[in-house]
Write a structure and sequence with these properties.
Strand content: 25-35%
Low-confidence stretches: 5-35, 1034-1077, 1109-1423
Largest sheet: 6 strands, mixed
Mean pLDDT: 74
Number of helices: 10
Helix content: under 10%
Radius of gyration: 51 Å
Shape: extended
Length: 1450
């Protein structure tokens, strides 16, 4: 069927060509073209249109309403009605009926507060079977509400001859139904008594007959509604003057063209004021004007409003003594009007046509298209082009019918229609027709176009006289389009405007003089998929909404290639080359702050996740005009004579005109009476002669520029006084009173004073000059000028100069002077010496001071002349940067605004007069680093293959690193809203851009942030990135998972999975980081070494312990009894000091020995640490000291970072060094720890600053033994030891003390039980620990006050406190060295005396790399020894410790 239809179409085309008619495809675009009728079955257009369309109606409840409608057609049309878009069923409606002419009658309109069935929008629909349907404009039926008064008349009085106003405010719908009564009789309205549109009554020029009782009546059908009565009294004329005031001021109005507008204005006062009006500051002439009428009291009525009437109206009331003004705006709206209506079109199938429609209105109307009464929805084949035109592509028979363009804005709507007839084709003439073209192929396939080629048909191998038509359609669409070859014999064509990634079906038909031949076989071709970027946004429109704003709208791209993320709107002032842009989320945007009355171009680019798409075409719009924003310039006055003054001025500055200047308004007044202002409006000339002035009177003038929008700001008042009498111009002026000359090299400056006789007119001055004679050259200047420079003279020459005043009669007597121009000064040919010793002193990250010396200055380098220096600088990154320069008058310059961590080069030159030096030698300087000012980029999180509990975080360095990146910190949490100090921290050292995190919880969402660090500190954090861990683990991870899972239920012993490798020698690889074979060998060496040393020490200590005397052994046994035992031991304050074990072990970390057989019921296996704020802070008063000492916590970053997440702490050796202390000190063990120099983490009240920080604090007070210390307790310590992180990590092991320990983590006693009794002078070290599990709270053995005693615990018994003031405390610390895979009991070592508190504190502060941890939960108290014996043993032990320290350091 399609092939036959194509043959008929081509037959008509062939006939058209044969008869010399234009190409039908072109004819389709020209409506009503008769060329298509040739060779077609002729049909004519059928007249079908509305004779009458419904109009807006205002009705009242209970009244009858007729909505008029009548349509014309040769066949009587069927009329139907729609209300609010829905057809009315008039057959069963007893109140609404269709009249014979098609009008709609509504009987007894129904309207109540909750039932308004008749109010709404009505539309008439006319249909002719087999022809089509047309719809009328929509008309609004408004039903006036129930009669109500919003204000009622009030009793008032009015002086005779003055004006009064009686209010009767009703809603706008009822205002036409209001009338007035005086003493229950209707008020007769005339030019003196007037009813305003709002219902109020104005009585002007009051007389005695106006007194009485007034009321207003609403007659809206049914019972009239009366207002209250109010008495108006008429008073006699007042004898005293009364102040001028408004009783009713005009209010702003919005009217349609053709309506009437009334501005009420009523003023009272004595004398009775006179009312006049201005529009846009121009006087309105109301007398004799057909459209402007002055109503009662001075109100203004404008009949048949036009667009030109819009503006600012000012009511001016003048009583002679005073003047008052009131302003109101008139806005004029215009219903839609058609500038071009759609025209009827003939067309054939498969052709493309365009219905044109052009409308105007205010506000700008919107346009929609209707076909046979149904809305046309834009699609691939129905498109809205050029804002209002409808394009139909690939016509089919069903497209026939009536098309209507419906324009609508806020104040009305209109419709215009046209008919489309699709012609049937006449059969082709007799004769041989071509066969099908051969070998149709697509030789070029792109995203939006395809090139087809073919060979000539078999029937006509030459094919020189054949033309071809190419029919194409989307696969599955029954709507073919046609493209014709451009000339006979051509066997290729380019098909444009296709959609990407779409299958099209093509076929080619050849035609000769007899008609179209056979069609080729269909060829299916798929266009290429477009790069995954959005296409151009269709229907971009720009509308100027004000003088400074433009609203741009567009539609979603047809090929968005995924979700459109946002749009970028580019705009540029016409004639400029800098384009600005703004990001927009929606489909419209209003750009404000534009220049007035200026052309701008706009374009839109859509963005999806792949980037920017195709830009739209530029649309150009000019912002609306406005009144000028600046006054004219350079207003000057020239008094011509006693009655006239000439004004000269310049236009407002460029860019402030805000439109086309249409003229200038001049206002002037006598200075003596400021209120009497006269206006004069002139054209666009820049001068004006004001005549008819009074003699000897001072006048003030001001000038304002005009545009079509109104008057701009005026200049300041400028005054001039007219002459008392006119000057004499019957004779020439007298000689000027003086003449002075000042010679220069090539010019002479001439100055003079006017003639002494001022009564003779001087029009100007004539200057003559020449070498030896003044008559060689003559120059005339204005009479106001008093000096002139004669240019282009010869040096060292004698000139004679003459000056004459002249007027219209002639030139006066000359005045002579002579002068010799100066000789040429020979410039100094030698250039200046460049500055030397240029130095760049870096002051900050963005400031460098440049200093230099100048050898051309005296030795004291003091600048006494007008020389200046130019400093230039640049950086070589990027290579094409330009020099920046600055001038200085001293021997130094401060260059600011530089980039951090950037190398700059500087050079200086000196300039003196016209002489300059060359550039000096360059100095270089690199600005200091600054903390990164942007976060790391492109943060991504992926799961590690085969290990679902391990993830890999990748990122890119920050764009503004401002220095060498020394590390990163990864924060992660399961709660994105948690406080940042509650997030888990993963430090990354160096500039690595990837990191692994292990042992995460399965099927849990995590949020990750990254912070970059350089030598100056931390940069901002990146945005949070979410990642959910997988639901199930792979089988190869099960052993490790089971181990960690069981450990989480009890006291959580440190678990070592099958994949675990303990770190070596301070190389704490982050979790997941690979460990080299070299590290494994090193680990083995250190484990063996430490084991050997440990065995040696333990053996020695064991021998040492067995050599005790019996009395000592008794004391030792007594010390290990239960807490109820009564044995007490006194320390000897004069004992020998122990060796300084702190210094010998400065690379060790203090760590608790928290191995306990008892499970901790509160511990859980969770990847996120407990919020440190969950633990109640103990003493916030200690915070201040913590903040003051905050900087001492910062150490240097260790080579690698240590993860702090739960379940990832390896087992570490515990080293317990025994020494006696008085007062007692907590037992500590030492281990390496890593600090984070993070300035963003400060201590908050009673909370840990960071899970990865560990500090050793000095407690102010001794603590009772046997109580636990929470995070908060430790955080509130008042002092800290300066700590430098260690780089040595020893192999992990577990340790047991001489007695089984109770796990003090479950103990909840407060350390501050005796807070009020504490002595702040004692600073005892406690430990701030890093928990091995995020939820663990470490227990610290507390130290009792100095006067108290305690019983050491027996095995498996926790230490308790007993008060015994009579006995001083004797405390013993034990030291143990653990080995991998087994535990050894510590050997007791007794130290007779410990250093006092102050000395101990000093030792702690001197150690650079110490972290305090609580150690043992119970103590073994050793025996006492003789001083000599103890000294030998301690010396022996100290030597062993030195050896151990040397080994571990190596």
């Amino acid at each position: 069927m399609a092939a036959g239809r194509a043959r008929r179409l081509l037959g008509s085309l062939w006939i058209a060509l044969l008869l010399g008619q234009p190409d039908p495809a072109g004819a389709a675009a020209r409506s009503g073209s008769q060329s298509l009728l040739t060779g077609s079955l002729v049909r004519t257009f059928t007249p079908f249109y509305f004779l009458v369309e419904p109009t807006d109606v205002l009705s009242v409840r209970g009244a009858s309403v007729i909505m008029n409608c009548s349509a014309y057609c040769e066949t009587a049309p069927k009329i139907e009605w729609k209300k609010d878009g829905t057809f009315l069923n008039l057959v069963s409606d007893d109140r609404r009926q269709l009249l014979p002419d098609g009008s709609l009658l509504i009987n007894s309109v129904v309207h109540s507060k909750h039932n308004k069935p008749d109010e709404g929008y009505y539309q008439c629909v006319a249909t002719v079977e087999s022809l089509g349907t047309i719809v009328s404009r929509t008309a609004k039926l408004t039903v006036a509400g129930l009669p109500r008064f919003s204000s009622q008349p009030e009793a008032s009085s009015v002086p005779k001859g003055s004006s009064a106003i009686l209010n009767c405010e009703v809603n706008a719908d009822l205002a036409p139904f209001v009338r007035w009564e005086q003493d229950r009789q209707p008020v007769l309205l005339d030019e003196r008594v007037y009813k305003l549109p709002s219902g109020a009554l104005i009585v002007s020029n009051a007389t005695d007959t106006d007194g009485g009782l007034y009321r207003c009546v609403i007659e809206s059908g049914g019972t009239p509604k009366y207002s209250d009565e109010a008495e108006l009294k008429v008073l006699p004329d007042p004898e005293e003057p009364q102040d001028l005031m408004f009783v009713r001021q005009p209010s702003s109005l919005t009217k349609l063209t053709g309506q009437s507008a009334v501005f009420p204005c009523v003023a009272v006062g004595f004398p009775v004021p006179y009312i006049r009006w201005t529009r846009n500051e121009e006087e309105l002439i109301t007398e004799g004007s057909g459209r402007y009428l002055l109503l009662a009291g001075g109100s203004l009525e404008i009949s048949e409003v036009t667009e030109q009437d819009a503006g600012t109206y000012t009511c001016i009331a003048d009583s002679g003594n005073d003047t008052i003004e009131a302003q109101a705006e008139l806005t004029v709206q215009v219903p839609p009007e058609f500038l071009k209506r759609p025209a009827n079109i003939y067309a054939h199938e498969s052709m493309d046509i365009v219905f044109e429609c052009e409308v105007t209105g205010k506000p700008t109307p919107t346009v929609k298209w209707v076909k046979n009464g149904d809305m046309v929805i834009p699609s691939d084949y129905f498109k809205i082009i050029k804002e209002h035109n409808l394009q139909v592509l690939g016509l089919v028979k069903s497209d026939e019918g009536f098309y209507q363009c419906i324009a609508e804005n806020d104040v009305g709507n209109a419709q215009a229609g046209a008919q489309l007839i699709i012609l049937d084709l006449a059969p082709a003439t007799t004769g041989p027709l071509p066969s099908a073209p051969r070998d149709v192929v697509a030789t070029l396939v792109s995203t939006r176009f395809i090139r087809l080629t073919w060979r000539t048909p078999v029937s006509d191998p030459q094919g020189d006289n054949l033309t071809y038509s190419i029919f194409y359609t989307k696969e599955g669409i029954n709507r073919e389009r046609v493209e014709n070859t451009s000339r006979p014999g051509e066997t290729q064509v380019m098909i444009q405007n296709l959609m990407p990634e779409t299958v099209y079906v093509f076929r080619v038909v050849a035609q000769n003089k007899h008609g179209p031949g056979e069609s080729s076989a269909p060829l299916k071709v798929a266009t290429q998929p477009e790069v995954q970027l959005p296409g151009p946004a269709p229907n971009i429109r720009a509308l100027a909404t004000s003088p400074t704003s433009v609203t741009v709208t567009w539609e979603t791209p047809l090929s968005g290639n995924g979700e459109i993320q946002n749009y970028k709107l580019y705009y540029m002032e016409k004639g400029q080359d800098t384009e600005q842009d703004v990001d927009v989320a929606g489909l419209s945007y209003t750009i404000n702050g534009l220049k007035k009355y200026t052309e701008y171009s706009f374009r839109v680019v859509a963005y999806n996740k792949h980037g920017p798409g195709v830009s739209t075409q530029d649309v150009v719009v000019r912002t609306l005009s406005d009144v000028p924003s600046a006054p004219p310039q350079n207003l000057t006055l020239e008094v011509r004579n006693s009655k006239s003054i000439m004004l000269h001025w310049q236009p407002p500055p460029a860019g402030t005109h805000s439109g086309q200047i249409t003229g200038y308004k001049i206002r002037y007044r006598k200075v003596s009476r400021k209120s009497d202002v006269t206006e004069s409006i002139g054209g666009t000339q820049l001068y004006q002669l004001i005549e008819g002035l009074e003699r000897g009177t001072e006048y003030s003038f001001r000038v304002a520029a005009l545009t079509v929008n109104g008057t701009g700001p005026a200049t300041d008042w400028v005054s001039a006084e007219t002459f008392e009498s006119d000057l004499d111009e019957t004779r020439v002026p007298e000689v000027p009173s003086s003449l002075h000359v000042r010679p220069l090299v090539t010019s002479i400056v001439v100055s003079w004073t006017p003639p002494e006789n001022q009564n003779i007119v001087v029009r100007g001055y004539a200057i003559g000059y020449g070498i030896g004679s003044p008559h060689a050259q003559t120059i005339k200047v204005d009479y106001k000028q008093r000096y002139y420079t004669i240019e282009n003279l010869d040096p060292s020459s004698h000139y004679v100069i003459t000056l004459k005043a002249f007027n219209n009669v002639g030139e006066g007597i000359p005045l002579y002077e002579s002068a010799v121009t100066r000789p040429h000064s020979v410039p100094d040919p030698s250039p200046m010496m460049p500055p030397v010793g240029v130095q760049a002193s870096i002051l900050s990250h963005d400031t460098i001071r440049i200093t230099w010396a100048d050898n051309s200055l005296p030795k004291n380098q003091k600048i006494t002349d007008a020389r200046y220096y130019t400093v230039r600088w640049k950086t070589n990154i990027p290579a094409n940067t330009k020099y920046k320069t600055a001038n200085a008058t001293t021997l130094s310059y401060l260059v600011t605004g530089l980039k951090p961590n950037t190398l700059y080069e500087f050079s200086v030159m000196v300039t003196k007069g016209r002489r300059s030096s060359t550039w000096s030698m360059t100095a270089h300087g690199t600005t200091f680093e600054l903390v990164p000012t942007s976060p790391p980029k492109d943060v991504t999180v992926v799961s590690k293959e085969g290990k679902p509990r391990t993830i890999i975080v990748n990122w890119q360095p920050p764009s503004e690193a401002n220095g060498k990146i020394t590390g990163y910190i990864i924060y992660y949490s399961t709660d994105v809203n948690a406080e940042i100090h509650d997030w888990v921290i993963e430090p990354v050292v160096g500039n690595r851009l990837t990191h692994q995190i292990q042992e995460l919880t399965l099927d849990t969402p995590y949020y990750f942030k990254i912070q970059a660090r350089n030598s100056k500190g931390m940069g901002p954090m990146s945005e949070a990135v979410q990642f959910r861990t997988p639901k199930a683990e792979s089988s190869d991870k099960m052993p490790n998972d089971q181990a960690s899972g069981s450990a989480g239920k009890g006291s959580r012993p440190v678990d070592i999975g099958p994949d675990y490798k303990p770190p070596l020698g301070g190389s704490n690889s982050p979790h997941g980081s690979p460990t080299s074979p070299l590290d494994s060998n090193m680990l083995l060496v250190i484990i063996v070494s430490v084991g050997v040393i440990t065995i040696v020490i333990v053996v020695i200590v064991a021998v040492f312990c067995t050599r005790r005397t019996t009395s000592h052994q008794k004391k030792k046994r007594a010390a290990c009894k239960s807490v109820n035992g009564s044995h007490k031991y006194k320390g000897n304050s004069k004992d020998v000091k122990p060796p300084d074990l702190w210094i010998h072990h400065e690379r060790l970390e203090l760590k608790p020995i928290d191995k306990s057989p008892d499970p901790n019921p509160i511990m859980t296996d969770t990847p996120i640490p407990r919020n440190s704020q969950d633990i109640t802070p103990v003493d916030n008063s200690m915070d201040s000291n913590i903040h003051q000492r905050r900087n001492s916590y910062r150490g240097h970053e260790s080579e690698d970072s240590m993860s702090t997440l739960a379940g990832r702490r390896g087992m570490r050796p515990k080293m317990m060094m025994p020494f006696d202390s008085q007062p007692p000190q907590p037992v500590i063990s030492a281990h390496p720890i890593h600090s984070l120099d993070n300035p963003h983490h400060h201590f908050h009240s009673g909370s840990l600053a960071s899970p990865t920080r560990s500090y050793l604090h000095h407690q102010l007070n001794p603590w009772p033994i046997g109580t636990s210390m929470s995070h908060s307790d430790r955080a509130n310590s008042t002092e800290s030891v300066r700590n430098t992180p260690s780089t040595d990590t020893m192999p992990a092991s577990s340790s047991q003390t001489c007695a089984d320990h109770q796990d003090l983590e479950s103990t909840t006693g407060s350390y501050l039980a005796n807070a009020q009794e504490e002595d702040s002078a004692q600073n005892l070290p406690t430990a701030h620990v890093r928990p091995s599990h995020p939820l663990k709270s470490f227990a610290v053995p507390a130290v009792p006050p100095a006067g108290s005693t305690y019983d050491p615990a027996l095995p498996s018994t926790p230490l308790l406190t007993q008060q015994a003031p009579a006995h001083p405390v004797h405390s013993v610390k034990t030291a143990s060295i653990g080995t991998l895979g087994r535990t050894r009991p510590p050997m007791p070592v007794v130290v007779p005396s410990a250093p006092d508190v102050q000395e101990t504190t000093r030792m702690l502060e001197d150690s650079e790399s110490t972290r305090g941890y609580p150690l043992s939960h119970s103590f073994c108290l050793p025996q006492n020894y003789e001083p000599d014996e103890l000294t030998k043993e301690m010396a022996h032990l100290e030597g062993l410790m030195k050896d151990l320290n040397a080994i571990t350091t190596a």
